[in-house]
Each structure stands twice: as structure tokens, then as C-alpha cells.
Amino acid sequence: MAFIKEEREDIKSEETFRVKKEDPEEQIKMEFIKEECEDMKIEAFRVKHEDTKEKTAGEPRRKGPSSSSVCTECGFLQKIHTVSKHSHKTGNVSCFPCQQCGKSFNRFGDLNSHMRIHTGEKPYICHQCGLGFTLKVTLRRHMRIHAGEKPYTCPQCGMSFTLKETLRRHMRIHTGEKPYTCHQCGLGFTLKETLRRHMKIHTGEKPYTCKLCGKSFIRKSSLNNHFKIHSGEKPYTCSQCERSFTHKKKLDVHMRIHTGEKPFTCKLCGKNFTRQTSVKNHMRIHTGEKPYTCSQCGKSFTYKQHLDVHIRIHTGEKPFTCQQCGKSFTEQANLNVHMRLHTGESPFTCQQCGKCYNQKGSLKKHMKIHTGVIDMFSVSCD
């Protein structure tokens, strides 16, 4: 019964040392940040090109209090329209430094755009979703999401994307490229952000804490999923038995009960399981490992669920109660067996004599009569 219970138990959203599907919100944010960095470069080129056209036309740039800056190399007080020439003379192409992070720019306009990162200013707002952007060109690119426009297509699988950065990242699936490597465990990642999140596993950092129960998580998406436990929200429903789940992954695992799919196999005995964690737990039977020990009597167990049930012997807790007769039990499995007394259900049938039993253990004892193995605990056919 413990194995059945474990197979049916909702899968935990565990943090592992492998790359998992990333939080869509965080993905979009990271992509737009990268896109905006590119946009700044494009904007700088555009402004530079416009300046060249103005100079050619003989139109002087409008002067103002913000149109000059001091060169960090020589102290020369320079105007915006003289920056390129002066930078060429000094050999320095970045004369406008950011006072907050130290990054330098060769144009004052580029520095102004950069400063929005520190100030949080996002003057370009999407009228459909309210998301703000530092550059107008990034807003135009964002509007493709609402329009459903996906101009960037993978040449290998035909999948299309809204952003060029997303396509570039997607191509790593085909190439197998993982440029970001963890220096502690050697695991590789396709994204720098994923590596940064992975490092929290080594440091033990869990910055996202549930305000209701105090449980902490490495990722914000994990915290959002955890909130569904408190809210009772279960948006994913099984089409066959109508059981609902808080996460889609739990529903996917549950569906294997109906399909009979057991993709994970024990290499020692060949037994199959629906979940990878079930295989890991099963291996303890072969190794004899019993990592869960009762603090009151010292008895050890292979599974944590077994320890939890055992602890109720000491506490006297019997949380599972029969609604018909009021009898209580320490675990759900025992209540399920008990209910067969009321329903008359006897699902375990002897293939030789047809006698039925409400427990599988009773059938096994009965079978000893047919096999010739009889002991004082055997059940007769009478």
C-alpha cells in the first residue's frame, strides 16, 4: 500500500541541479533587458547618423546646460558635437562615465538612456498591458506579443519567436551549447540567469518567502506555485477522473496512472515506476538504507511516509475516521480497507477456487492452501 500511495502522491516541485523550465515572467523580463541593451546600441548609431547629417547640412546643434561634459581623460570641457573628434585625439572612445556603476559611453545621449536603468524610469508604456520600457524601440518590439507577430523563425525546426534574443537562445537546444558553467559542480547552462539561479542551491539562498507559512524558495515561480496550496487553487484537472492539481507537472505524472506508463526502471530488479523519485526511494530496498529514524524509539524507516505513520503510534493520532461507524485509523490506506466492510467490496479473488477477499494480504495467506504451504496464520477455504 505504501508504494501505491507513493505512486499516487502529488509530485513535489523540487529544486534540483539540472535546468528546469524557466519562469515565463522572468524569461520575458530578461529577454527585454537584453533587447534594450541592443536597442541602446542601435539608438546610439541612429543619433550619430543624424548628427552627421546635421553637420553636413551646416545646422549647428542646440546648446544647453546639459550639452557639455568634462572628459575623464584630460579634463577638457567638451560639447556633444565635439565628442567624436576629441575622443579620436585622446584615443578614448568612452568619455561619459556613469557615476553609479562606472560604465562609460562615448555619447551623452547614451549615458542619459543608460541612467534610466538606475532611476527605474520607463517613459514608454504599453497601452494594452501597462508594461513600461526605457526605449521606444523596445516598446514597438513588445507590441509584437499582443499582435501575435513572430518574425524570427528557427531554420531547423520551424518554431517562431517574437524576439531575436529568444531565437538565439532557442538555437542552443539544437547546437547543445551551454556557455555558462557552474564552477562548483561543473553543470552547464544555456542562460546566465539560469546559472545565477542554480548557484543559490550551493549557497543555500532562498530569497522568496511565503508570508503565510514562512517557507522559503529559490525561485519566485516556486513561491507562486506554493501559494496555490493556501488558496486551494487547482487549475489543472484530469479529464478521466476529474482529480485536480495545483501544477501541470503533477497532472502529467498523474496521467501515467491512467495510461499505465512507467518510464523509470530499477536497474537491479527491473521494476518500473511512474516517477524518478520513486526509483530513488525504491533503491533503498536494495541498499538497505533507512535514513528516517524515529526520535522516540530509534526505529528506522526506508520512506519518510512510513516514519510519519509510525510517529502516530507514539502520539496516538488517528486522523482518518470512518464516516459510517466513527472508527479512526492512523493512515488513509487502513481506512480504505476498512470501508470495504461497509460496502461489501472484495476486490481480491482466488484464481483457483474463486473465493474473494477485501485485502490482498488475506488472499496471499489463502493461496498457501493451494500451494501446500500451510501455517498457523493461513486462512481456510471453509
From TrEMBL:
<feature type="domain" description="C2H2-type">
    <location>
        <begin position="96"/>
        <end position="123"/>
    </location>
</feature>
<dbReference type="InterPro" id="IPR036236">
    <property type="entry name" value="Znf_C2H2_sf"/>
</dbReference>
<keyword id="KW-0677">Repeat</keyword>
<dbReference type="GO" id="GO:0008270">
    <property type="term" value="F:zinc ion binding"/>
</dbReference>
<dbReference type="GO" id="GO:0000785">
    <property type="term" value="C:chromatin"/>
</dbReference>
<feature type="domain" description="C2H2-type">
    <location>
        <begin position="264"/>
        <end position="291"/>
    </location>
</feature>
<keyword id="KW-0479">Metal-binding</keyword>
<dbReference type="InterPro" id="IPR013087">
    <property type="entry name" value="Znf_C2H2_type"/>
</dbReference>
<keyword id="KW-0539">Nucleus</keyword>
<keyword id="KW-0238">DNA-binding</keyword>
<feature type="domain" description="C2H2-type">
    <location>
        <begin position="236"/>
        <end position="263"/>
    </location>
</feature>
<dbReference type="Pfam" id="PF00096">
    <property type="entry name" value="zf-C2H2"/>
</dbReference>
<dbReference type="GO" id="GO:0031519">
    <property type="term" value="C:PcG protein complex"/>
</dbReference>
<dbReference type="Pfam" id="PF13465">
    <property type="entry name" value="zf-H2C2_2"/>
</dbReference>
<dbReference type="GO" id="GO:0005667">
    <property type="term" value="C:transcription regulator complex"/>
</dbReference>
<dbReference type="GO" id="GO:0000981">
    <property type="term" value="F:DNA-binding transcription factor activity, RNA polymerase II-specific"/>
</dbReference>
<feature type="region of interest" description="Disordered">
    <location>
        <begin position="48"/>
        <end position="69"/>
    </location>
</feature>
<keyword id="KW-0804">Transcription</keyword>
<keyword id="KW-0805">Transcription regulation</keyword>
<feature type="domain" description="C2H2-type">
    <location>
        <begin position="320"/>
        <end position="347"/>
    </location>
</feature>
<comment type="similarity">
    <text>Belongs to the krueppel C2H2-type zinc-finger protein family.</text>
</comment>
<feature type="domain" description="C2H2-type">
    <location>
        <begin position="152"/>
        <end position="179"/>
    </location>
</feature>
<feature type="domain" description="C2H2-type">
    <location>
        <begin position="292"/>
        <end position="319"/>
    </location>
</feature>
<feature type="compositionally biased region" description="Basic and acidic residues">
    <location>
        <begin position="48"/>
        <end position="62"/>
    </location>
</feature>
<keyword id="KW-0863">Zinc-finger</keyword>
<keyword id="KW-0862">Zinc</keyword>
<feature type="domain" description="C2H2-type">
    <location>
        <begin position="124"/>
        <end position="151"/>
    </location>
</feature>
<dbReference type="GO" id="GO:0000978">
    <property type="term" value="F:RNA polymerase II cis-regulatory region sequence-specific DNA binding"/>
</dbReference>
<feature type="domain" description="C2H2-type">
    <location>
        <begin position="180"/>
        <end position="207"/>
    </location>
</feature>
<protein>
    <recommendedName>
        <fullName>C2H2-type domain-containing protein</fullName>
    </recommendedName>
</protein>
<feature type="domain" description="C2H2-type">
    <location>
        <begin position="208"/>
        <end position="235"/>
    </location>
</feature>
<feature type="domain" description="C2H2-type">
    <location>
        <begin position="348"/>
        <end position="372"/>
    </location>
</feature>
